[in-house]
């Protein structure tokens, strides 16, 4: 079955050019010329990957990325002509998986998109309502968590944190980003809340806690030994 990409690009010629290359590689392509149209397509279709321009009318790419991450862990690849490191960091903190610079080769873009899909699909297994990483299995319907088949009792926030980290496997996530995503922007606590819950979660995960480690930029990464 073909994968489906949502291509969000306001330049019609660039959009057509990129679409042609993806179709040659047997991708189905949904096209959006601005952020508002992108959200409408995203909410009415099932997509496997989003390639997202930043500077667009109606709604910019940052806003689209933020809104999609509130409801989905679909892989997102940002493409932009902006070279500022802070822009790239913002993209990753908002939940983007890849960041590619314009001008770009459509062939390289397709190759990187294919590699991203293989990496995403190969890191965390999905089987219906189940999310699986190593010996950790999470039933998203019942909220049951097991380690090598043995049940583990997690507090509600510990469960939400684990699920969030599993969905973002392989990414470096700042404490600020984790706090806002799991506890909400209106949470009045401080960043030590994240450290405390990660420490408790590591204790309950036993040997599988090796997948959660402290990494660069004072954040956490799921999927790397710590």
Automatic annotation (TrEMBL):
UniProt GO MF annotations: phosphorelay response regulator activity; transcription cis-regulatory region binding
Cellular compartment(s): Cytoplasm
PROSITE patterns listed in its UniProt record: OMPR_PHOB, RESPONSE_REGULATORY
Pfam families reported in the protein's UniProt record: Response_reg (PF00072), Trans_reg_C (PF00486)
Protein species of origin: Paenibacillus pinisoli
DNA-binding residue intervals: 128-224
Keyword Iron annotated: no
UniProt record, GO biological process: regulation of DNA-templated transcription
Entry keyword set: DNA-binding, Phosphoprotein, Transcription, Transcription regulation, Two-component regulatory system
Domain OmpR/PhoB-type, chain residue ranges per copy: 128-224
Listed GO CC annotations: cytosol; protein-DNA complex
CDD domains: REC_OmpR, trans_reg_C
Name the record gives this protein: DNA-binding response regulator
Keyword DNA damage attached: no
Entry superkingdom: Bacteria
Modified residues (4-aspartylphosphate): 53
Annotated ranges, domain Response regulatory: 4-117
């Amino acid at each position: 079955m073909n994968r489906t990409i949502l291509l969000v690009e306001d330049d019609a010629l660039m959009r057509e050019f990129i679409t042609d290359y993806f179709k040659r590689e047997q991708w189905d392509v949904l096209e959006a010329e601005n952020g508002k149209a992108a959200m409408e397509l995203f909410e009415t279709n099932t997509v496997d990957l989003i390639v997202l321009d930043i500077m667009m009318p109606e709604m910019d790419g940052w806003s689209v990325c933020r809104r999609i991450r509130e409801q989905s862990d679909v892989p997102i690849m940002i493409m932009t002509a902006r070279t500022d490191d802070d822009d790239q960091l913002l993209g990753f903190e908002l939940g983007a998986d890849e960041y590619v610079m314009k001008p770009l080769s459509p062939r390289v873009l397709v190759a990187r998109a294919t590699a991203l899909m293989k990496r995403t699909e190969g890191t965390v297994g999905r089987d219906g309502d189940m999310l699986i990483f190593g010996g950790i299995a999470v039933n998203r319907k019942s909220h049951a968590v097991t380690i090598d088949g043995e049940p583990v009792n997690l507090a509600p926030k510990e469960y939400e944190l684990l699920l969030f980290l599993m969905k973002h496997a392989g990414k470096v996530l700042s404490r600020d980003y984790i706090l806002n995503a799991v506890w909400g922007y209106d949470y009045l606590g401080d960043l030590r809340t994240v450290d405390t819950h990660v420490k408790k979660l590591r204790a309950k995960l036993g040997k599988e806690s090796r997948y959660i480690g402290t990494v660069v930029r004072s954040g956490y990464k799921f999927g790397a030994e710590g």
